[in-house]
Specification:
- The chain is mainly alpha-helical.
- Helices cover 69% and strands 0% of the residues.
- Helix 9 packs across helix 10 and helix 12 crosses helix 13.
Amino acid sequence: MSDSAALDSFLEKWRTRWPEWSVGEIFVAPARRETAVAWFALLQEFDDALNVSGDPLPADAKLAWWGEELRGWSGQRSRHPLGRRLEPVRTAWSSLADALPALAAARGAQAGSEEAFAALAGYGAAVAAVEADVLGRAPDVQAVVAQVLAMSLADGGVAAVPMAFRREEDTAAVRGWAADVLRRWQGGRAGARERRVFAAYARGRLERLSRLGAPAPLPSRPVLLLTGWRAARGD
């Protein structure tokens, strides 16, 4: 597979997981779309390494490999297809690499909300700092962490719910934790337009999870358009 085809494959994998983007990307300048998708696809790789069940060793090895890869990007020595798009950005790739072990440490249920957010605070700060260079504007760190926790809940279900919320049955525990993450998900107007649109769709998924306790079908295209438009405006 050529480098170009391999890159397209990774970008398409992310788009398949986030079909909302095919609606909302209309609000993003065409010249910026591929870089944004590459960045979000990279973050998805890290989300996947956080949200594992069973033997964590393969995910730990993946994080270690990514740490080496990101340090290579600082010297323009990418091996991964996503690096073809992202490594030209001059940013603190090594600092992001240094933050990756926090994902392994944050696996599993935390004691409560404070612990869950604190476990990922350093990682969120590293993501925000790099995103300031990749997309031109830093997102709110708390919002980055909230989005990571939202994805962890969507992927892991009750296993990702802090112990403080597990006093009720599983569906109620998921709903309660989803509602708490939403409450703490502040700073939505910060960040580049691409982040705001993506975060609005991620937040929408979490809102539906907080109501139902389980993943729900996507809203209609007009609703997704309105959500993307509002996020792009910074509403």
